[in-house]
Design a protein that fits this description.
A hairpin with a 2-residue loop joins strand 1 and strand 2 (223-224). With 275 residues, the protein is an all-alpha fold. The protein is built from 12 helices and 2 strands. It has a two-stranded antiparallel ribbon with strand order 1-2. Helix 2 (10-30) packs antiparallel against helix 3 (35-48) and helix 8 packs across helix 10 (183-208). The protein has helices at 3-7, 10-30, 35-48, 53-81, 87-107, 113-132, 135-140, 147-164, 169-178, 183-208, 225-246, 251-274; strands spanning 219-220, 223-224. The chain crosses the membrane at residues 12-43, 55-77, 89-108, 114-133, 154-179, 191-210, 222-247, 253-271. It holds the Pfam family TauE. It is a multi-pass membrane protein. It comes from Paradevosia shaoguanensis.
Length: 275
């Protein structure tokens, strides 16, 4: 590769560093896996590099899921040590959520980039509304003793999370809380569930993107290894900054900040898909 060709990738590398920093800070600040930051930011960085809009969204979603695997394992391990993981719920959820994400990742290749943006956009707005007005608890609270409801919920959360490129915490945590888990156990169990989501979704995207064309350099299927390493490393370094900020802010304020952020990102994704 010539110096001129190498220099052309500098904007991409800078974009990845900024994406990793922001996703790490927001992951620590808001308790999310970072996918809500990584997907739109990585898509924007790849778009600036001139890649096709359909490929951009698929790579952003797939790489986001791959990044969540190591961070999710570390988070779940920490929660487990503190007794904040419900192993019984985990046994109910993991097989079905893994199948849901595997199918979602595999089927993603059948959808256009615009469809994936619409899924991300509408689900982001739904999650924001559920944060402010927790209607999920009212709708599902009476079903907490049903193993079948747990399994169906796991499959749906896994499938949607794979198409969004998130670890599913924004969907699994309120669902587990609606089923009667304490918030600490819902968050801890959600972190462990996020690992299954990320693994299944990543495998699906690798398979569905194996023969895709016009991918960024060093990609395995739709997963870009350069973004995986740079964004993942920066996110890990910057997450403690977000944690430190979070402990200085009121939790209610954080919830509203997160809801506003998700709404804005969702609207931007829908606008980009439709216009």
């Amino acid at each position: 590769m010539s110096f001129a060709e190498l220099a052309a990738y500098w904007p991409f590398a800078v974009g990845l560093l900024v994406t990793g920093a922001f996703s790490g800070v927001f992951a620590g600040l808001l308790g999310i896996g970072g996918g809500a930051i990584i997907v739109p930011a990585l898509g924007w960085a790849l778009g600036l590099m001139g890649y096709d809009s359909d490929v951009v969204q698929h790579v952003a979603v797939a790489t986001s899921l791959a990044i969540i695997i190591p961070t999710g394992i570390m988070s779940a391990r920490s929660h487990y040590k503190r007794g904040a993981v419900d192993t019984q719920a985990l046994r109910l959820w993991v097989p079905f959520i893994f199948v849901g994400t595997l199918i979602g990742g595999f089927m993603a290749g059948l959808f256009s980039g615009a469809v994936l943006r619409l899924v991300f956009g509408f689900m982001s707005i739904f999650i924001a509304a559920n944060i402010v007005l927790p209607f999920q608890t009212r709708l599902m609270g009476h079903l907490k003793g049903s193993a079948l409801t747990h399994r169906i919920s796991a499959f749906v959360v896994g499938y949607i999370s794979a198409l969004m490129g998130t670890g599913g915490g924004s969907l699994s945590v309120p669902t587990l809380a609606a089923f009667g888990e304490t918030m600490h156990k819902a968050v801890g169990t959600g972190a462990a569930i996020g690992v299954a989501i990320a693994i299944g979704g990543t495998i699906g995207f690798v398979i569905s993107g194996w023969s895709a064309s016009d991918l960024p350099p060093l990609s395995i299927g739709y997963v870009n290894l350069v973004a995986l390493v740079i964004v993942g490393a920066m996110a890990a370094v910057c997450a403690p900054v977000g944690v430190a900020i979070a402990h200085r802010l009121d939790q209610k304020t954080l919830k509203y900040v997160f809801a506003i952020f998700l709404t804005l990102v969702g609207l931007q994704m829908i606008w980009k898909a439709l216009f």
